[in-house]
């Protein structure tokens, strides 16, 4: 854990086969990171850009592009889980996430079946199944957790999504406890996306005289407060999409500004390297009342945050679906 005094974890938002056998293990050993996340975009860049997968592609007996993708991706996830197993055993997070086929985002039953299959197939206790936070996704989260599957709820943009995740986890955990009273309790994270708000809104915020690079931070704080107030000990807030585009902000801005007690930040490798160069003060989130004042000022200038929530979720789903489909198309050609 990066900072045990406040239970703050730093996870790496990057996976690639050569990285897993080298620098990844060093970062774990040094106590820099204690978890890792992946998504279809990350796997797309890894599988299609690195020659580390060439031999596995050639020797695979997969019958379809999706089978081949899963063979490659789950092998990486298993390697990462093995590298993090000591952290997991010591109750120091130690999780690695793999996302279900994003084309199932609006299909609860398919998400549940694939999530359960992936979790069982990888065969490691410290794997999290990543499920998009859609209405069918909430149902799948509940059902997966009821079977003891660790969950990473992804593409969280709104407080309402956060509430629905908490409800799903609470119901799923209750069912799990009833059916498996002596088993180890599953864990969950709620992945609150941050930087995409500011990339979408900064020009408008500046135009009306409101502070820039703040909407993502304020929204993340509001979701964090909801999770903290829910007091579900097996659920943690995770701040995602914390890389910075351009040079107008420090590279580690979204990590240092969200260094909160009992939280996780998953960041790109270059962001992590920048963050660990210097010491950082632990921050405290603003009260929900102060946060609502900020959003009230946005509303006065006709910036509709509800529309932004929907657009960012829709765009995020499309981005992951496109990346996933591009992987399959490329593997079909191979």
UniProtKB/TrEMBL annotation:
PROSITE patterns: TRANSALDOLASE_1 (PS01054). It is found in: Cytoplasm. NCBIfam families: PRK03903.1, tal_mycobact. HAMAP family: Transaldolase_2. It comes from the Bacteria. GO terms for molecular function: transaldolase activity. The active site is at residue 130. Pathway: Carbohydrate degradation; pentose phosphate pathway; D-glyceraldehyde 3-phosphate and beta-D-fructose 6-phosphate from D-ribose 5-phosphate and D-xylulose 5-phosphate (non-oxidative stage): step 2/3. It catalyses: D-sedoheptulose 7-phosphate + D-glyceraldehyde 3-phosphate = D-erythrose 4-phosphate + beta-D-fructose 6-phosphate. Pfam families: TAL_FSA. The gene is tal. Belongs to the transaldolase family. Type 2 subfamily. Coiled coil: none annotated. Its EC number is 2.2.1.2. GO terms for cellular component: cytoplasm. Transmembrane segments: none annotated. Keywords: Cytoplasm, Pentose shunt, Schiff base, Transferase. This is Transaldolase.
